[in-house]
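Researcher: Quick one. two chains, 487 residues in total.
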Amino acid sequence: VNEGMKLSRMLLCRVWCRLLWLQASWNYEVMQALGLFYALTPALEQLEPEGRRRRARQWLGYFNTHPYLAPSVVGTVLHLTLQDADRGGQLGPRQFVDMVSAPYAAVGDAFFWGAWRPLSAAAALCLAVMGWVWAPLAYVLLFALPRLWFSIGGFYAGIRQGLAAVQWLQRWHLADLAIRGKRAAAVLLGGLCALLMLRDVATPGAVPSWVLLPVPFGILLLSRLVRRGLPVPLLVGLITLVLTAFWLWFGETA
Amino acid sequence: LTLGEGAICLLLSLLCGLDRTAAVQSMICRPLTAAALVGWALGLPLVGLEIGVALELVWLGRLPVGAAIPPDDTQMTLAATVLAILGVRQLPEAGAVAPAVGGLLAFCLSFPGRWLDHWARQRNLRLLMAARRAMTDEERSLREISRYHLRGLLHFAGASWCGFLLMVLPGYAVLRLLVGVNLVWAEPVAKMFLLACPLAGMAGILSGWGERSTWRLFSGGFGLVWLVTVVWP
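Model:
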């Protein structure tokens, strides 16, 4: 069916660039499916006219994965679509997508949103609090590193290795990296908390620095309140009141 | 704001709003980056940085997983920065309070952001239906059908602009009411509000992680910085 299909570098670049807009038509029914269809269109147009529309229609079903790991899925889809013509592949591209999109989403969410983003944010915020005005740029660049690696590398691995791209991704142990990333982020957040408190509360002559030592206990207590359902805006109000009272009281005493 | 500054703000609202979900996702939509961009564009980068530091962590613990939509901290930050800068310009006698006033106003007015995001995603469903209908029409090419996808950008752009303006316009009206009001008394509250935001954000992030080990690491980081800063400055 796909004998006429050619995956030129230009075409692959177009598909990858189109994946940057994967979520432009995100909706509650099929989530990113229309975006996947949009990304695959240049490749689908290379198919023989006969059966092209039938093959294209299957991409309007449900699709949802992590946007940064979607290139890896799409790379394998392109590989399998070609393989289908050459050798009559056993696992179809649609079956592959249905099989991996949820696990990829889970691992991508845990690593990128759950660990790397807080870690990058905490690092950039520490730099900003220390007075480094380029901290926002550092944030974007720091976050972009693994994103580009998995986006470009995953796409390339998918095209070159097909189903073995799953092993390429497994090799990175993203779930373990996510746990380590969260731990590192927790340390940085603690450091950031100390920097903020020392900068804004421990005014020389008013609030002595040792008074701040129980702050981590306070944060633990607050995190328990959030877990029990206290909305963050209310928490902001509560902390503002407590800190203001504390600061004014110490100021008066001093 | 001059016309040019207003146009820049709307452009940044659009770019950051699209970056949030619909396009690229390069993290320029994050509060720290978005606020710094607006601050830099309006000539007060440090005010932008201050707002960004305050708001970055507030909703960071809310993950955009599956169909879950976290609160729109992007437009909230952009509006907070614009209002803070307007506050610095209009309330010169209460310059230190202005960033907190901007942040507080945007915080209070941010609730429509999520509805608008929800609205954009609902509207996108129509695009899917249209694409499916077009697929049955043999006359329509795949390229033509795939373009329905890009129309979703308009929905997200509309949601971004509406969210931004729904915060900035009423916020500006409140700022006008505050002209001439002595706000110096509110300085300690304003300072603590800007500190409370990241602390609440930290509590929100830690609440989603394992408690004991995370808290030990958090305390370790806190203690280490405290020691380095206080004991061996």
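Chain B has a mean pLDDT of 89.
Researcher: Thanks, that's what I needed.
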